[in-house]
Design goal:
globular; mainly alpha; single chain
Amino acid sequence: KFLGLLIDAGLRWKEQGAEVVRKGSDWVVAFRRVATVTKGMKMKFVRRAYLGMAIPHMLYGADVFLTPKRYTPKLRKDRRSTHPIIRQLESIHRQAAIIITGAMRTTAGDILNVHANMLPMDLIVDQ
Protein backbone atom coordinates (compact mmCIF):
# COMPACT_ATOMS: atom_id res chain seq x y z
CA LYS A 1 0.00 0.00 0.00
CA PHE A 2 1.47 3.31 -1.09
CA LEU A 3 -0.32 6.66 -0.61
CA GLY A 4 -3.61 4.84 -0.17
CA LEU A 5 -3.33 2.78 -3.36
CA LEU A 6 -2.89 -0.99 -3.36
CA ILE A 7 -0.03 -1.76 -5.73
CA ASP A 8 1.26 -5.24 -6.52
CA ALA A 9 4.50 -6.26 -8.23
CA GLY A 10 2.86 -6.72 -11.64
CA LEU A 11 1.03 -3.37 -11.55
CA ARG A 12 -2.32 -5.13 -11.78
CA TRP A 13 -5.10 -3.17 -10.17
CA LYS A 14 -7.53 -5.94 -9.20
CA GLU A 15 -7.02 -5.45 -5.47
CA GLN A 16 -7.39 -1.68 -5.77
CA GLY A 17 -10.53 -2.11 -7.87
CA ALA A 18 -12.03 -4.46 -5.31
CA GLU A 19 -11.20 -1.94 -2.58
CA VAL A 20 -12.89 0.87 -4.55
CA VAL A 21 -16.03 -1.22 -5.05
CA ARG A 22 -16.03 -2.15 -1.35
CA LYS A 23 -15.75 1.51 -0.34
CA GLY A 24 -18.57 2.47 -2.67
CA SER A 25 -20.82 -0.28 -1.35
CA ASP A 26 -20.09 0.79 2.24
CA TRP A 27 -21.03 4.40 1.40
CA VAL A 28 -24.29 3.32 -0.24
CA VAL A 29 -25.22 1.22 2.80
CA ALA A 30 -24.50 4.19 5.07
CA PHE A 31 -26.64 6.51 2.94
CA ARG A 32 -29.45 3.98 2.86
CA ARG A 33 -29.48 4.00 6.66
CA VAL A 34 -29.68 7.78 7.05
CA ALA A 35 -32.00 8.50 4.12
CA THR A 36 -35.20 6.82 5.18
CA VAL A 37 -38.27 8.38 3.62
CA THR A 38 -40.21 9.09 6.79
CA LYS A 39 -37.62 10.36 9.27
CA GLY A 40 -34.26 10.50 7.55
CA MET A 41 -32.16 13.19 5.89
CA LYS A 42 -33.68 15.21 3.10
CA MET A 43 -32.77 13.89 -0.30
CA LYS A 44 -30.94 17.05 -1.38
CA PHE A 45 -28.58 16.64 1.57
CA VAL A 46 -28.03 12.97 0.76
CA ARG A 47 -27.14 13.97 -2.81
CA ARG A 48 -24.73 16.61 -1.57
CA ALA A 49 -23.10 14.16 0.83
CA TYR A 50 -22.82 11.49 -1.88
CA LEU A 51 -21.22 13.84 -4.39
CA GLY A 52 -19.04 15.56 -1.80
CA MET A 53 -17.86 12.64 0.30
CA ALA A 54 -18.53 9.27 -1.32
CA ILE A 55 -17.40 10.01 -4.88
CA PRO A 56 -14.03 11.53 -3.84
CA HIS A 57 -13.35 8.64 -1.44
CA MET A 58 -14.26 6.02 -4.04
CA LEU A 59 -12.29 7.60 -6.87
CA TYR A 60 -9.16 8.56 -4.93
CA GLY A 61 -6.26 7.80 -7.27
CA ALA A 62 -8.60 6.75 -10.10
CA ASP A 63 -6.46 8.53 -12.68
CA VAL A 64 -3.76 5.95 -11.94
CA PHE A 65 -5.74 2.71 -12.13
CA LEU A 66 -8.87 3.47 -14.21
CA THR A 67 -8.91 4.04 -17.94
CA PRO A 68 -11.66 6.51 -18.84
CA LYS A 69 -14.34 5.28 -21.22
CA ARG A 70 -13.31 7.56 -24.05
CA TYR A 71 -9.80 6.08 -24.09
CA THR A 72 -10.80 2.42 -24.26
CA PRO A 73 -10.01 0.99 -27.68
CA LYS A 74 -13.33 -0.80 -28.16
CA LEU A 75 -16.76 0.40 -27.04
CA ARG A 76 -19.76 -1.85 -26.92
CA LYS A 77 -22.76 -1.10 -29.10
CA ASP A 78 -24.81 0.02 -26.10
CA ARG A 79 -22.03 2.52 -25.17
CA ARG A 80 -21.38 0.85 -21.80
CA SER A 81 -17.84 0.66 -20.57
CA THR A 82 -15.86 -2.53 -21.02
CA HIS A 83 -13.85 -1.86 -17.88
CA PRO A 84 -15.19 -4.14 -15.10
CA ILE A 85 -14.45 -1.71 -12.27
CA ILE A 86 -16.32 1.11 -14.02
CA ARG A 87 -19.29 -1.22 -14.60
CA GLN A 88 -19.38 -2.08 -10.89
CA LEU A 89 -19.10 1.60 -9.99
CA GLU A 90 -22.03 2.33 -12.32
CA SER A 91 -24.10 -0.18 -10.36
CA ILE A 92 -23.16 1.49 -7.07
CA HIS A 93 -23.91 4.91 -8.57
CA ARG A 94 -27.34 3.67 -9.65
CA GLN A 95 -28.09 2.43 -6.14
CA ALA A 96 -27.13 5.84 -4.77
CA ALA A 97 -29.39 7.54 -7.31
CA ILE A 98 -32.28 5.31 -6.20
CA ILE A 99 -31.67 6.35 -2.60
CA ILE A 100 -31.44 10.04 -3.52
CA THR A 101 -34.57 10.13 -5.63
CA GLY A 102 -36.62 7.60 -3.68
CA ALA A 103 -37.44 5.87 -6.95
CA MET A 104 -38.31 2.23 -7.50
CA ARG A 105 -35.57 -0.28 -8.27
CA THR A 106 -36.93 -0.88 -11.78
CA THR A 107 -36.43 2.74 -12.86
CA ALA A 108 -33.94 3.18 -15.69
CA GLY A 109 -30.49 4.40 -14.66
CA ASP A 110 -30.43 7.30 -17.12
CA ILE A 111 -33.71 8.61 -15.76
CA LEU A 112 -32.39 8.30 -12.21
CA ASN A 113 -29.31 10.35 -13.06
CA VAL A 114 -31.45 13.08 -14.60
CA HIS A 115 -33.84 13.26 -11.66
CA ALA A 116 -30.99 13.17 -9.13
CA ASN A 117 -29.17 15.85 -11.16
CA MET A 118 -26.00 13.73 -11.34
CA LEU A 119 -23.62 12.86 -14.13
CA PRO A 120 -23.30 9.21 -15.18
CA MET A 121 -20.42 7.38 -13.52
CA ASP A 122 -18.35 7.08 -16.70
CA LEU A 123 -18.38 10.86 -17.09
CA ILE A 124 -17.46 11.31 -13.43
CA VAL A 125 -14.47 9.02 -13.96
CA ASP A 126 -13.52 11.02 -17.08
CA GLN A 127 -13.34 14.21 -15.01
